[in-house]
């Protein structure tokens, strides 16, 4: 019996659609042997349908996570229902190179995947269909937006010149550390320091050279402190440190190390080689301050004492002015 013309036309346009659609179509039997492989899959894999037909998918693509895909297919067959996975769950199933010029920054194609059961004339599932969607453009845009948001979040918390925490973020951490001390009573110290005679640096060498000195002070400090410590730029040439689990004597050792490193450094700028010093005030927290601002005030008083005592020195607060 010959096919009628409408049936023949329908068959041809259906085959043509499956070959030209921008979606990957793969039909597998339950032994994972390839039964159908459309033009999308040929174009991106470089493997023709005739080359891969009846081959086990995992032999042709050893990078495919075999155990994961088998679990997915088993579920589809057993429940006779579709399964779906997105690029956010698994970046891709087939490791195809990304060929889209708009999203050329991505090395490989991001893919969404639908696995559908296919039944025979007896109503039994004997094959599954994989539909592979190229979502690289969408995924790349979303990742770029996430990176931009992360960068904006970071910029909102950091000082642009030095990369240290900005004043608002750092003061919030001082408040958090104050609360932690009130709960647990572990030793903790607060440090305020600034660059000696910084106005003279700006007046003599210019603000660009002054910025280099500020960056140098920030980097030297960052290199000297621990991962658990928090450094911030408090404003202008003034900086702050939170030193958890550190008493006044321990803080003095850390700060004197920073002070000496800065004193023995030379900042090379386009206008001159600059040497500078810092003065440092330390306040170990005890039960007397009622809030973090009073703790900050103690560190600031110690800094003032360091300035009055000749600069280029470290002073620990010992209760004056209380």
From TrEMBL:
Q: What is its EC number?
A: 2.7.7.65
**What superkingdom does the record give?**
Bacteria
Q: Where is the PAC domain?
A: 92-147
> InterPro entries this protein is in?
Diguanylate_Cyclase (IPR050469), GGDEF_dom (IPR000160), Nucleotide_cyclase (IPR029787), PAS-assoc_C (IPR000700), PAS-like_dom_sf (IPR035965), PAS_4 (IPR013656), Rev_trsase/Diguanyl_cyclase (IPR043128)
| A GO molecular-function annotation | diguanylate cyclase activity
Q: Which UniProt keywords apply?
A: Kinase, Transferase
Q: Please tell me which top-level EC class this enzyme sits in.
A: transferase
Which cofactor(s) are needed, names only?
A: Mg(2+)
Question: Which stretches are annotated as coiled coil?
Answer: none
Residue span(s) of domain GGDEF: 186-319
Reaction(s) the record says it catalyses: 2 GTP = 3',3'-c-di-GMP + 2 diphosphate
Pfam annotation, one family: PAS_4
Gene3D superfamilies per UniProt: 3.30.70.270, PAS domain
Q: What is this protein called?
A: diguanylate cyclase
Q: What is the lineage of its organism?
A: Bacteria, Pseudomonadati, Pseudomonadota, Gammaproteobacteria, Pseudomonadales
